[in-house]
Amino acid sequence: MAIFGSLSDRLTESLKNLRTKGKLSASDVDGTVREIRRALLEADVSLDVVKKFTSAVRERALSDDVNRALNPAQQVVQIVNEELIEILGGQQRRLEFAKNPPTIVMLAGLQGAGKTTLAGKLAKWLRKDGHTPMLVAADLQRPNAVTQLQVVGQQAGVEVYAPQPGNGVGDPVRVAKDAVDEARRRQYDTVIIDTAGRLGVDAELMKQAADIRKATNPDEVLFVIDAMIGQDAVATAKAFQDGVDFTGVVLSKLDGDARGGAALSVASVTGRPIMFASTGEGLDDFEPFHPDRMASRILDLGDILTLIEQAQQAFDEDEARQVAEKFATDSFTLDDFLKQMQQLRNMGSIKKMIGMLPGAGAMRQQLDDFDEREIVRTEAIIQSMTPAERANTKLLNGSRRLRIAKGSGMTVTDVNQLVGRFEQAAKMMKTVAKGGVPQIPGMGPIPGAGFGGGRGKQQQKKKGSKSGNPAKRAAENAALASGVKPGSAAASGGSGFGLGGGKPAEQQIPDLNQIQKLFGR
Amino acid sequence: MAEGRSWSFGGALRNLFTGAQKRVIDEDTWDELEVALIGADFGPDITESVIDELKAKVERYRTTDYADLQRMLREDLEERLSKFDTTLKLTERPAVVLVVGVNGVGKTTTIGKFAKFLTNYGRTVVVGAADTFRAAAVEQLGTWAERAGVQIVRPQQHGQDPASVAFQTIDFAKQNGTEIVIIDTAGRLHTKGGLMDELGKIKRVVEKQAPISEVLLVLDATTGQNGLMQAQAFLEHAGVTGLVLTKLDGSAKGGFVLAVQEKTGLPIKLVGQGEGIGDLTGFTPHVFAQQLVG
Prior knowledge:
A: Four Helix Bundle (Hemerythrin (Met), subunit A); Rossmann fold; 3 domains; 25 helices; globular; disordered C terminus; B: alpha/beta; eight-stranded mixed sheet; 15% strand
């Protein structure tokens, strides 16, 4: 599901009228700016930031600059996008490591922001990168925070330094200081200090945080803030900036449906970059924050870069080539289909993936209706077949179908539907592989566009070049097939097999393609 | 604590009226009021409706006095807040209270304080540690139970089904004649369908043994407009009967609860104002509005 979903809905709505108009008048801009203002306020962006943002957008939209452009409406989208990126911190920033280890990272934030969990995530992430992190339990305030950190550390497989039992006993400044010596002695290259949650108005605890900072001289002080926080984000961020002066921000609980306006406010008010985003309860739900991608998400332009990265991780190229060959030689079986489906699932939730695609905002409703378990059911049906049946669907007579239905807990009708769709799709793929134009009902270009990106172009090439030389033609077909494969297989997995989701987006596409061209994607 | 609160609590709204005795109501006033209300997380909708109402009143009484405006604002907020019944209903024996909310809002802390609050009135209390998911949540609740001097039912094994812990807690209360049962649940984001269903299961299991007296949704005062979505989701899945507003000792004003109340009809029942065990009080609309506006 697209993060910032509700905000992108609002902005898309408010910009829709603008897109359709040929010319841009001052009142158009005013109306749009009002909508943006309201959307941002409902997203909990701080009022000051909203005012600054909207006046900047308004000014740029009305300047001569915009009138020179071919399509003023697109210009406004671009302006909003650029301004969003600007506020979100421009370029992505990485953790800075100390020249002489250990690198010290200190975490600070309000109670319940998610510091302890984040400490575990950060440690695990660093460990994957080949670092040797050590966690330090300097939250001696909250009951059993030390125990929690120990459990988290165990899950992440990293050392936890906890000399004090916590629950109000012990001096966190001393613990932090000792931890650094300990890390140097035992040659850990990163120290992550988990501190107690504190309120911005609590002068005493704020001083304690400042003391920890002074005692350990950390390379990075990360301010952990809940994505659901409201207007208070600014006051809190300022208090922490004055109190401990953090160097970067981590946005937690981004997997909820909070519109995440706090991200905009904090980055804008403190001028500190947002470095990481935490997106779930598992220790792996943690990723570097990309301002440009996030801005695109807000505007519902899709997060294609992330999607491609995930796709590259999940798809095995060799296997893809093999499958492409199978298409061409008409030996694509249900077994291969099952493998394809499992590969697709390796990429994570289908919903999450579709949510990253441009225009997904418009199909959010359909997305909510889409049942992830449908895939599991399809898998169950295929797995209830014998290898011979999977290789040759012609074998499937009535009694075999009944057996499969019983084995998978489905009805014969379901089995029939699956087999019917599979045969249809296999025929289509054969056509594609042989260079024909497939008649695929309801297969929008969207699912294919996400993978690799080259598919559209290759399809066009195929229409034009029908070489008379059989060898040359076969080579062309092979190239075509390998390009086509992942996309079309995924697409038919999506729509050809009754796992709908692609259809509703179709009418959205021309519009979004335009905008995408605008940003040079 | 009281001093600390008057320093920060509702600061934005109060600043509006300090040193303003000699001022008259003009266009700037409405802008400032809008800034203050939005800054207190009331949200654009409530802000608009409050300002419209006040404008109409100012028009009707033809006043230009700031003190009048302040009084009208206080009355307006108080009226909105007291639309619903804020008393806790704990007449069943045992009275079962389920505490739910998203991650990190202060559920466990609230339970500790609530248990103390009830024992102060001479009630016997048992808490059930049904947060079997988060690391060390059971230990955290154990510490609070010890501080409040109440009994606790822990899961028998690691990662036990939360519904079964709830079941055992009520069983314990029935056998020992404990009057009030408070059940802690794991924090869950309201967007996670599976986890919300789990909450439904806990509720069903508990209801087989004893009727549930209250389902309290804990909301963090620093939350913004997302609080509304939280409340709606939890109302749908867990049948929330009342709200607890926590972390009011910070600089946040929690204005979003007004929107929550109006959209869902859920009354605020308890207010948490600190990390000490005595920092939990019942909710009084009059006092809340007074603190907010001054």
